[in-house]
TrEMBL record:
It is found in: Cell envelope. PANTHER family: ABC TRANSPORTER PERIPLASMIC-BINDING PROTEIN YPHF (PTHR30036:SF7), D-XYLOSE-BINDING PERIPLASMIC PROTEIN (PTHR30036). It comes from Streptomyces smaragdinus. Pfam families: Peripla_BP_4 (PF13407). Keywords: Signal. GO terms for molecular function: carbohydrate binding. This is Periplasmic binding protein domain-containing protein.
Length: 340
């Protein structure tokens, strides 16, 4: 398993280097001759300028979480910068309710957009509307969650991390730090990706791992739940949260409970980078959300422009990358600007 995780990390780093090199090269190309002043103004706001003169296609992104969530803010920023480069009119909408997310996708279909990017946290609720989009001739790329369902639904490709593989990497990291009893905090019931993360960690962890379901929309309740569990069971020596905003909450619960448990998390942001450096957190699992947004837009542009696809029927992996104190200082400057 360790070799498998290491190989995935190597592939991701190699691929990321190619992506960044391509982005820098495109940034030096000439400005769009068709987008006009509006395209240039929007591009400037997004941190770039059109590098192509293709038609101004419209791409809609619809996710199961949205503005105000530090992870999805980074996804959106990547998508906006990719859209600026590709002369794309980019729209974004989100809802944590699966039926509402499906309706937002239907709205994009009704508006006859040129491409749709969608997350599949609750794939059963999204299957019908994704298939409607494809039947209407609208190419779809899935991101973040729904790796297994993406191809079945007919999407061009899926961009994200393999959640099971990411969980396995967590279990192996817990083994390396000598943990014996871990708590995996699930903050969104029904999210298939979250279940896969905890299941993957349980598979490779040599100790025992227990799932704790919490109400992710109520942070005081989350803290109380973790505090109560740590107080009741002092043998718990590791807590893994599944999103950056919950890492600090778990750290606070640990303090209240007087626990010595090691706190780790999925996802990276500026706060997590600082907490890794000061020892509050042991490690983070970065799935590089900027790439999920940027590459989804860019691949839709490539498909519209040149009928290109990527992945060969397999997902395009953006993670996992285990980040510890050693890497955190270097990555903090990128997290500070909102791209890691």
């Amino acid at each position: 398993m360790a070799q498998r995780a290491a190989l995935a990390g190597t592939r991701v780093r190699t691929w990321v280097g190619g992506v960044l090199a391509a982005a820098l090269g495109l940034g030096a190309a000439s400005c769009s001759s068709t987008g006009g002043k509006r395209a240039e103004d929007e591009a400037a706001q997004a941190g770039g300028r059109p590098a192509v003169s293709t038609p101004r296609w419209t791409v809609a992104m619809v996710t199961h979480s949205g503005q105000g969530d530090t992870f999805w803010d980074i996804v959106q920023k990547g998508a906006e910068q990719g859209a600026a480069k590709d002369n794309i009119n980019f729209t974004y909408a989100a809802s944590p309710e699966a039926n509402e997310q499906a309706q937002l996708v239907q709205n994009a279909i009704d508006q006859k957009v040129d491409g749709i990017i969608v997350s599949l946290a609750k794939p059963a609720a999204m299957k019908g509307v994704v298939e409607k989009a494809i039947a209407a001739g609208i190419p779809v790329i899935t991101i973040n969650s729904g790796t297994k369902e993406s191809k079945e639904f007919g999407a061009l490709t899926h961009i994200g991390q393999d959640e099971t593989l990411a969980g396995e990497a967590v279990g192996e990291q817990l083994n390396r730090t000598g943990r014996k009893k871990a708590l995996c905090i699930l903050h969104e019931q029904g999210n298939v990706g979250h279940e896969e993360r905890c299941a993957g960690a349980k598979k490779t962890f040599d100790g025992t791992l227990e799932n704790l379901y919490v109400e992710g929309t109520d942070m005081p309740s989350v803290e109380q739940s973790i505090d109560a569990k740590l107080t009741a069971d002092p043998a718990i020596d590791a807590v893994v949260t599944l999103g950056a905003p919950f890492a600090n909450t778990a750290a606070q619960a640990k303090k209240r409970a007087g626990s010595d448990a090691e706190i780790s998390t999925f996802d990276l942001n500026e706060g997590v980078a600082r907490s890794l450096q000061d020892g509050t957190l042991a490690f983070a699992v970065d799935q590089q959300p900027y790439l999920q947004g940027y590459e989804a837009v860019d691949l839709l542009w490539l498909y519209k422009y040149n009928a290109n696809t990527l992945g060969g029927g397999l997902p395009v992996l953006t993670g996992p990358q285990i980040v510890t104190r050693d890497e955190a200082a270097e990555l903090e400057k990128y997290a500070r600007r909102g791209t890691r």
